[in-house]
TrEMBL record:
<keyword id="KW-0560">Oxidoreductase</keyword>
<dbReference type="GO" id="GO:0005737">
    <property type="term" value="C:cytoplasm"/>
</dbReference>
<feature type="domain" description="FAD/NAD(P)-binding">
    <location>
        <begin position="6"/>
        <end position="306"/>
    </location>
</feature>
<dbReference type="InterPro" id="IPR023753">
    <property type="entry name" value="FAD/NAD-binding_dom"/>
</dbReference>
<dbReference type="Pfam" id="PF07992">
    <property type="entry name" value="Pyr_redox_2"/>
</dbReference>
<keyword id="KW-0285">Flavoprotein</keyword>
<protein>
    <submittedName>
        <fullName>FAD-dependent oxidoreductase</fullName>
    </submittedName>
</protein>
<dbReference type="InterPro" id="IPR036188">
    <property type="entry name" value="FAD/NAD-bd_sf"/>
</dbReference>
<dbReference type="InterPro" id="IPR050446">
    <property type="entry name" value="FAD-oxidoreductase/Apoptosis"/>
</dbReference>
<dbReference type="GO" id="GO:0016651">
    <property type="term" value="F:oxidoreductase activity, acting on NAD(P)H"/>
</dbReference>
<keyword id="KW-0274">FAD</keyword>
Length: 414
């Protein structure tokens, strides 16, 4: 087989792995080469702050089934450094050149480093994105080789999904957690007021939240980190975990002609805008949807997009049906303080919130509607899964009045 006959996938997270596996499942018999930015074979990244950090599981135990797909070439760790779409060539950091028939970009995102800082991050200021990050945190906390931590003090800057989940997990392992959050009610922009208020109560019970505050500075010693908040308060801990959002991994695409402002811009079939034979999937992809292009960061969407990109590749090579536009609703599931949290579709800022009375203890499900009262998303806590009728209502953006009886619609607030 000539090198030009292969599909190159850059990135071996769930999106890249699902793409490679789908190409084979659907009978593609050309070469499939995956460029790996990490030493590990594809593993479950959602476990980085759960079983990897708190229980010390290794990436080997959490390897994805897609990694066993036959006849996929998983290159040894290397990084894509440049793309030349005219020559259909990717250059790797090792100097290797990969010619491709089709290229799928699945390079994900990385943790946003210490905001505004150009200085190197000292040892006790960490981020949490990879299995190596989890192992490093465990080692700094002196937990290596032990099943559970059960001691230490961790300061977390940022109370979004990763900061909040990690606070919940560490406090469950009897670690003292200081949680510094800029918002007075963390995550109210994503979860809505009901669920966010419930979550803040749990943070208050189990951790030490410092809300409406940010980190103004820190000094890191050999075995402690000292953090100064913007109100002058000082905190001391074993580690400062910076959980301040993420940045798409697109630097290597600068100069390629692709639109890489906040991720790789793709059309609804996940074809990159600006180059033939190039596709993107997962956290790095900014998908053209109505009313605006959007990047989503969640496990289910990354997997579904990886599969969808493979089908678009096969179609464009004349080897399969057109998959049509990618239309799966984003679903983010998580567990905080023992309660399942599920987000469906679009939620949060700019949308109106309506609480739907239910019979599950805890905050009611909140649905989110746009300016025309059409359903756009929902957030539930403690509910095993959304009713199919609600999922369909969000998918088809039906008016809220079609979902709720008039009495409940009367509860609209915001
Ligand atoms: C700690 C944590 C907890 C999470 N929990 C949840 C959860 O509970 N529920 C949920 O739905 N989602 C969760 N997520 C989000 C979810 O894990 C991601 O949305 C998903 O893993 C994204 O997959 P991906 O394949 O697009 O990107 P990634 O998994 O980020 O994979 C991208 C890969 O590309 C590699 N790469 C980057 N640049 C290059 C390059 N130039 N060359 C070669 N390789 C490169 C990277 O090293 C990485 O291996 C969590 C994420 C984290 C970090």
């Amino acid at each position: 087989m000539k090198q030009e006959d292969r599909v190159v996938v850059v990135g071996s997270g769930i999106a890249g792995a699902a793409c490679a596996a789908t190409l084979r499942e659907r009978g593609y018999d050309g070469g499939v080469t995956v460029v790996r930015g990490e030493d590990a074979l594809p593993y479950n990244r959602t476990a980085v702050n759960t079983t990897m950090l708190s229980a010390g599981h290794s990436h080997v135990e959490l390897t994805l089934p897609e990694a066993q797909t036959p006849d996929v070439e998983w290159l040894a760790r290397d990084e894509a450094e440049a793309l030349d779409p005219a020559r259909r060539e990717v250059r790797l950091a090792s100097g290797k050149l990969l010619r491709y028939r089709a290229l799928v970009i699945a390079t994900g995102v990385r943790a946003r480093p210490w905001p505004g800082s150009a200085c190197p991050v000292p040892e006790r200021v960490v981020t949490l994105r990879t299995s190596a990050d989890a192992a490093r945190m465990r080692s700094l906390l002196g937990w290596s080789g032990k099943p559970l931590g059960r001691h230490g003090r961790v300061i977390i800057m940022g109370a979004g999904f990763i900061g909040g989940e990690t606070a919940s997990l560490l406090s469950g392992a009897e670690v003292e957690v200081d949680l510094v959050a800029r918002q007075p009610v963390p995550m109210s922009d994503r979860l809505g007021r009901n669920a966010a208020s419930w979550l803040l109560e749990r943070h208050n019970e189990h951790a030490h939240p410092h809300v409406g505050r940010t980190v103004a500075g820190w000094t890191s010693g050999e075995d402690r980190v000292m953090v100064r908040l913007d109100d002058g308060r000082r905190l001391a801990g074993d580690l400062l975990l910076v959980a301040a959002g993420s940045l798409p991994n697109t630097e290597w695409l600068q100069g390629s002609g692709l639109d890489v402002e906040d991720g790789v811009a793709v059309d609804p079939s996940l074809r990159a805008i600006g180059a033939d034979g190039v596709y993107a999937a997962g956290d790095v992809a900014r998908v053209a949807t109505t009313p605006r292009a959007r990047r989503t960061e969640n496990w289910a969407s990354a997997r579904a997009q990886g599969r969808h990109a493979a089908r678009s590749v096969l179609h464009d090579l004349g080897l399969g049906e057109a998959p049509g536009p990618f239309s799966e609703l984003p679903v983010y599931t998580s567990k905080m303080y023992g309660t399942k949290l599920t987000l469906l579709g679009e939620t949060g800022a700019g949308l109106r919130q309506t609480a739907i009375p239910g019979d599950v203890p805890g905050p009611p499900t909140t649905v989110f509607t746009d300016e025309r009262e059409r359903l756009r998303g929902a957030v539930a806590m403690g509910v095993p899964q959304f009713e199919d009728s609600l999922v369909e209502a969000v998918r088809h953006r039906i008016p809220l009045s079609g979902l709720l009886p008039a009495a409940a619609v009367g509860k609209v607030h915001n």
